Amino acid sequence: MTDPLASDPRQIVIVGGGITGLTAAFRLIDSLSETGVAATITVIERDDRLGGKFFTIRREGFIIEAGPEGFVAAAPEGYELCADLGLADQLQSPKRVHGGSSILFKGKLRPITQGVTDILPLRPGALVAEGILSPSGALRAMLEPFLPPRKDGSEESLGAFLRRRFGDEAWWNVLEPLLGGIAGGEGDTLSAPAAAPGLVAFERQFGSVSVGARKQKARLEELGKADATLVAPREGMDVIITRLVARLSDAPHVTLRTGVAVEEIARTPRGFDVVTRGPAGFERLSADVVVVTAPAFEAAERLRQLDAPLAEALAGVRFRSMATFSFAFRAEDAPKILAGTGYVKHSRERGAVNSMTWDSIRWEGHAPEGYALLRAFLSDDQVVEHSSDDELIAFGLEEIRNVLRISADPIFVAGRRWSPALPRYTLGHLERVAAAERRAAAIPGLVLAGTSYNGRGVVDAIRSGTEAAKAAAALAAAGGPGVVV
After folding, report:
1. Given 61, 73, 274, 281, which is the most exposed site by the fewest CB atoms within 10 A?
2. pTM listed for this prediction
3. What is the mean pLDDT of each run of 10 residues along the chain (485 residues)?
């Protein structure tokens, strides 16, 4: 039988072997088959391991996530990928436990009825009872459905948007802490339409964020997804990466290269030269289509010689650093975490640690029977970037001592820092992405993908990889302008 690649196969290079790049490669196999185009696929990753921030540590019977702990259950892309990888029956949701989440406010852990993945609609009465909102602050938040929508279409910061809708007190005491993973104390520098497009769309479509949130919740209930919470493989998030790598390794005409850095991407009459540096020194790979899934700041450096204005737009995307360290204890040494699932912190309480979760309570099988696992999130750039691992661990342990009153030493500590880690969709982000889209359109065969542009979560990364595969297959088949997906 004649090999379909024996003639003149298209060559597709994917820069970046995180979840977006691996998903793009995996989906490309089917997308190319649908278009009837023969192609080779080469994934290039500068690190020695694939998977990016999917980083699961297994130690002494514990499952520890140093990166994302799951993906949003209400979105289909994560489920679909897991199903296609044979993992659908291995997915689990966090356990329902008494106590829920809390906010550390005025030195006290105060239970809240909202979870971090379900911040709206607010329940002001319960928040008054817990001393989180004053009666006047609760009344102001309750007025949100009756406030007219903003007519001015100009960009607004996330903090300004939510203060306008719910009032200052609800923002600072509830919404800002719950959105700490997004805002991280920078709500007034983040773009509301970029960082929280769903909330902005609620106001635009329904005239009220609360009304929109209730309607969305009703739709999810109809779909059997009323709890828009997380799901994850029981054995850890890196199982998704392991399955992707196994499927790609078995696929013909797919090559996975680790420990190889892309130095430059240049135009040629046919397409691109991708200049790499690895153990064998410098190499040049020819490519008809290049899919760049590396973070925007890395993409900017690789594309600077190709298109300086494009690189400038990409370099404008800001990032923040973070670290997660998990502390293992005997359950009897950590009695305070036997209720609830963790806490977020009011901005005045934040310090080095942004939040804490009890992973042994939240996730089945993440700790052996009789043991507790606490995870500390640190997201202050100055702290994460200028402290040693030992110092970051000390900050986490100090938090555990002061807030949870645990005096015992942990059995062990495991985790890591990510610097830089997550994109910050600062004011002007949508304009920067639009500028990148205009410049990319003038470069046939180029695809820019990943969470640097639209959406910061695991599902967004998977969605971007899927769209990148469709775009790359179309470009391989018929050419056309570059895209940002």
Report:
1. 281
2. 0.93
3. 58 98 97 93 97 97 96 90 96 79 89 56 79 93 94 91 95 88 77 93 94 84 68 96 98 96 93 95 96 97 95 95 96 80 88 92 94 94 93 97 94 95 93 97 97 92 98 95 96
Alpha carbon separation from 388 to 64, 325, 395, 398, 422 (Å, rounded): 20, 13, 11, 15, 20
**Share in percent of the chain as helix, strand, coil (round to 5):** 40, 25, 35
> How many helical (H) and strand (E) elements, i.e. helices and strands, does the chain have?
18, 21
Tell which residue, 145, 128, 146, 129, has the closest CA to residue 137: 128
Query: ∠ CA 124-126-127 to the nearest 5 degrees?
Result: 60
| Residue tagged 């948007």 (tokens) | 161
Measure the CA angle with vertex 464, ends 462 and 465; round to 5°: 65
- Cβ neighbours of residue 56 under 8 Å, at least 6 residues apart? 63, 64, 65, 66, 67, 236, 237, 238, 239
Among 226, 260, 280, give the residue marking a domain's end.
Answer: 226
Domain boundary among 405, 424, 443: 424
Closest CA to 463 of 197, 76, 201: 76
Looking at the structure, tell me whether residues 407 and 458 fall in a common domain.
no
Buried b (16+ CB within 10 A) or exposed e, 429-454: bbebbebbbebbeebbbbbbbbbbbb
Amino acid at 330: R
E strand map for 353-470: 353-358, 371-378, 412-424, 446-448
Task: Work out how many domains the chain is built from and give that number.
Answer: 3
Q: What is the DSSP letter of 56?
A: E
- Provide CB contacts within 8 A for 342, sequence distance 6+: 101, 102, 355, 356, 357, 358, 362, 375
